[in-house]
Specification:
24 helices; 520 residues; mainly alpha
């Protein structure tokens, strides 16, 4: 069933568009003031509220582990037969929630960590080992728990409570017996959408310059503003077409192609690089991450002056949280038919393994080039030439043009699938009534695809720096965190009340029966 015109929340849509447009106008008119203000607000937030981000993730992770490993993990979300396989579930969630950023950071993030070691480490070899461990930590289990803190309550509301809305206010209101004030619901819905737009802006704000620079290296095109805008327009055309086709035929197939290309890129990197060293370092990095997990999760470096936890761990948690509304809505759609336990474990375990392979292989390859003096990775990072570092790394491989082309194609497809998933989520959020399979209007998805191109163009116009891009997700999620944590608590309370006297088998049968009633 496609969404009809009267089912779209026009006021919410216009308010969101106006907020984005106003932000763009202010940034273009006063770029330096915008950068300065955002930078000051970022510093204040991460210094004074950093611990709140860390505890938010820890508490949410414990709640989701409780749901996964108790009888409540047997809850079926929307039927007995999964619409998408476990692999498809993981692949589409990965492409929507991590994709483009992994390609941006994969070959260089470990250098940042090497340059700014934690826990008083001074030994050169140990700094590189911990750099890999922090890679895996920042992109692993905790991030997926953050997504699931939204996805699980939304899934329970949509498939079990049968509230056919995917906006935050409707989901939250359902757990408060429809007693929330209207003004509060409007505010949190607007925050919900702006957060999703800000997260997407960060991905494109980082990804477009990387595509533009490497495309220039490969083809000779100038790396300038017009090339960047051209790339954004080209991406918008591709993901608009994919969005219009739909998730089953568009997003699903494109995610498959993207994952296969990513695997090919990593396999070639592994084969042409120091294979034994890469295997050993990935294994060692996983070990360090597991043994230091609690320490990393609660590290604030209170008496140090590195600000590593603030500008990296807390930034990453804020980034994951800013993506959580959009990705959580998307996971709700693709989780249909799966057990709650399977959704949680598939994404958490699969995401951790995926991050270990992507960052372990790519990062180790770069660190090895740095260690043997082939490239000056530290110098390039210090000079603010991160895009050049990735190009330099790819240039050391056999058939550098081929590897650069493969890298570019993978990055572009990751950008497209990320935006495709986001356009679905935004359409779902502003659609008042969905059918039992959470279908949305293809044409309205195209509208959001076009709007999603506005913010990265603004970033290009004001030449936004990395810390300015970082400030968006950190600042925007602060008021949302307590709301999302309450949502997670209320969802847990609901399943305990509803299924408290049932066994795991009874819970599964009952939730399957709920889905069957929709087919009658």
């Amino acid at each position: 069933m496609q969404a009809k015109k009267h089912q779209i929340d026009i006021k919410l849509t216009i308010s969101s568009f106006a907020a984005v447009l106003l932000l763009g106008i202010v940034a273009v008119i006063a770029p330096e003031a915008t950068k300065s203000t955002m930078g000051d607000m970022l510093s204040f937030t991460i210094t004074n509220l950093g611990s709140a981000f860390l505890w938010y993730v820890v508490i949410g992770s414990l709640i989701l582990c409780y749901l996964a490993f108790t009888k409540y993990g047997s809850i079926r979300l929307g039927g007995a037969v999964p619409k998408f396989s476990h692999y498809k579930l993981f692949a589409m969630a990965l492409c929507a929630g991590m994709g483009a950023s992994t390609m941006y950071w994969g070959y260089m993030e470990s250098i940042y960590y090497y340059m700014d070691p934690q826990f008083g480490i001074v030994d050169e070899a140990m700094k590189m080992e911990y750099a890999t461990a922090f890679n895996i930590f920042h992109w692993g289990a905790s991030g997926w728990f953050i997504y699931l803190m939204v996805a699980v309550p939304f899934g329970i509301t949509f498939y079990i409570k049968k509230r056919r809305n995917l906006n935050l206010s409707a989901v939250l209101n359902s757990f408060f017996d429809d007693r929330l004030p209207v003004w509060f619901m409007k505010v949190i819905d607007l925050l919900f959408i702006i957060t999703t737009l800000a997260a997407t802006a960060l991905t494109l704000g980082l990804g477009i310059p990387m595509i533009s620079y490497n495309m220039g290296v490969l083809t000779g095109l100038p790396d300038n503003l017009f090339t960047g805008i051209g790339i954004i327009v080209g991406l918008s055309i591709v993901f608009s077409m994919s969005s219009y086709i739909g998730i089953d035929k568009g997003m699903s197939r494109m995610s498959d192609a993207t994952i296969y290309l990513c695997i090919l890129l990593l396999a070639l990197t592994f084969l042409v690089g120091p294979s034994a060293l890469i295997a050993n370092n990935v294994t060692n990095g996983v070990g360090i991450m597991l043994t230091e997990f609690i320490r990393m999760s609660l590290n604030t470096d209170p008496y140090g002056n590195t600000l590593f936890p603030q500008y990296w761990t807390i930034f990453f948690w804020a980034n994951w949280i800013s993506y959580a509304p959009g990705v959580g809505v998307f996971i709700t759609k693709i989780a249909q038919g799966h057990k709650l336990r399977d959704v949680i474990l598939t994404l958490v375990i699969g995401g951790t393994i995926g991050s270990a392979l992507i960052f372990g292989i790519a990062g180790t390859y770069t660190m090895n080039l740095m260690a043997d003096g082939t490239i000056d990775a530290v110098g390039l990072i210090s000079a603010g030439e991160a895009t050049k570092l990735v190009s330099t790394v790819l240039g050391t491989m056999p058939f550098p043009s081929l590897m650069t082309a493969l890298y570019l194609l993978t990055l572009i497809l990751f950008c497209v699938t990320t935006l495709d998933g986001t356009s679905y989520s935004l359409t779902g959020i502003v659609t008042k009534n969905l059918d039992s399979e959470a279908n949305v209007s293809p044409m309205f998805r195209v509208f959001w695809c076009l709007l999603l191109t506005v913010i990265p163009i603004v970033f290009l116009l004001i030449n936004a720096q990395l810390n300015i891009l970082k400030s968006f997700p950190v600042l925007i999620v602060v008021p949302l965190m307590p709301i999302l944590l309450v949502l997670c608590f209320k969802a847990t309370q609901y399943v305990r009340t509803t299924f408290g006297d049932m066994s795991a088998e009874e819970i599964e049968r009952y939730t399957i029966q709920l889905a069957e009633e929709d087919k009658v």
